[in-house]
């Protein structure tokens, strides 16, 4: 029986990719863009990055004249699964989402596949072994972002003769950016055994989380030299905690973050953050292009990695006036 279901699901997906399925799994050929409906499940609104990402995606679909059904999961996987199931019920043409964590998606993605609805991953990845469950992944290479952060730390403390104590503020537990940014950073700093992560805890990508965790970890690690935060928002929370402790952020304790959203770049320009690795939230235009390709019966690239840079204080001062987010 299972085999039969598998064949039917595969058939439905093949039919669906020859232009968006009409929900009953029949190929209906390319639809006019103003008849397309896309269901999008967003992680939440936990950070400046997320706000910019949401705005950019909504604006891109508005501009393309494609209907976007949007749901905010408040960082809860069960809310994303509910939203995806609702989009399946509504027989949308494409489902796109940013998975809050890597695991636990196969069941609902198989339901979308059985319904003949193509799925696109944006921003974060899933750990599914079956990559037929999604058409494309569009987002950053978070391991590379961690490696870039590690390379700056190596250079910044190259002449250290004493151990360099590092506190790591992790993103959401189980989220691809948290897992990969930690992995890339650890790999690179291993080159200098003086650089030691003395404490690592999740601040859940929020400013409040970054502040709370930093307050606690400063007490148990008074000699910390560097805070490596997986995003600007937790780094901004760390600044508040450092100042509350009567210390000078960026001087007494250096701060290294990832994202490069406006508030983070302003803190970098002010010398309170020392270096930022960029992670672009501007995925809207490319997501629309992927949806248009699927609608036209074309096969999008499986993995589309966004271009991004890195900033020191001088570069932040220069970039700030034109910063889109
Ligand atoms: C990265 C994204 C992360 C950002 C955080 O692509 O998933 O989630 O780095 C955001 O700011 O909360």
From TrEMBL:
Cellular compartment(s): Cell envelope
Domain Periplasmic binding protein intervals: 38-298
InterPro entries reported in the protein's UniProt record: Peripla_BP_I, SBP_2_dom
Protein keywords: Signal
Record bears the keyword Signal: yes
PROSITE patterns, per the entry: PROKAR_LIPOPROTEIN
Family: Belongs to the bacterial solute-binding protein 2 family.
Name of the protein in question: ABC transporter substrate-binding protein
Higher taxonomy: Bacteria, Bacillati, Actinomycetota, Actinomycetes, Micrococcales
């Amino acid at each position: 029986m299972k085999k039969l279901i598998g064949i039917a699901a595969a058939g439905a997906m093949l039919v669906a990719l020859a232009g968006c399925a009409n929900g009953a799994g029949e190929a209906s050929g390319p639809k006019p863009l103003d008849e397309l409906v896309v269901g999008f499940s967003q992680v939440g609104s936990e950070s400046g990055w997320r706000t910019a990402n949401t705005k950019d995606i909504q604006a891109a679909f508005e501009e393309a004249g494609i209907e976007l059904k949007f749901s905010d999961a408040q960082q809860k996987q069960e809310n994303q699964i509910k939203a995806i199931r609702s989009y399946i019920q509504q027989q949308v043409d494409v489902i796109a989402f940013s998975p809050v964590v890597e695991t636990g998606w196969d069941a609902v993605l198989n339901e979308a596949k059985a319904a003949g609805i193509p799925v696109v991953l944006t921003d974060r990845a899933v750990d599914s072994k079956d990559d037929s469950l999604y058409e494309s992944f569009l987002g950053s290479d978070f391991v590379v972002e961690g490696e870039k952060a590690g390379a700056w730390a190596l250079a910044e403390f190259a002449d250290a003769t004493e151990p360099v104590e590092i506190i790591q503020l992790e993103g959401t537990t189980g989220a691809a950016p948290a897992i990969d940014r930690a992995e890339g950073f650890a790999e690179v700093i291993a080159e200098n055994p003086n650089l030691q992560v003395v404490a690592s805890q999740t601040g859940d990508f929020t400013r409040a989380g970054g502040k709370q965790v930093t307050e606690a970890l400063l007490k148990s690690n008074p000699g910390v030299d560097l805070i490596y935060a997986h995003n600007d928002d937790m780094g901004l929370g760390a600044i508040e905690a450092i100042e509350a402790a009567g210390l000078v952020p960026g001087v007494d304790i250096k701060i290294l973050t990832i994202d490069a959203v406006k508030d983070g770049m302003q803190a970098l320009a002010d010398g309170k953050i020392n270096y930022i690795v960029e992670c672009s939230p501007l995925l809207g235009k490319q997501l629309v292009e992927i949806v248009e390709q699927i609608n036209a019966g074309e096969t999008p690239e499986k993995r589309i990695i966004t271009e991004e840079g890195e900033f020191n204080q001088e570069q932040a001062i220069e970039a700030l006036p034109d910063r889109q987010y």
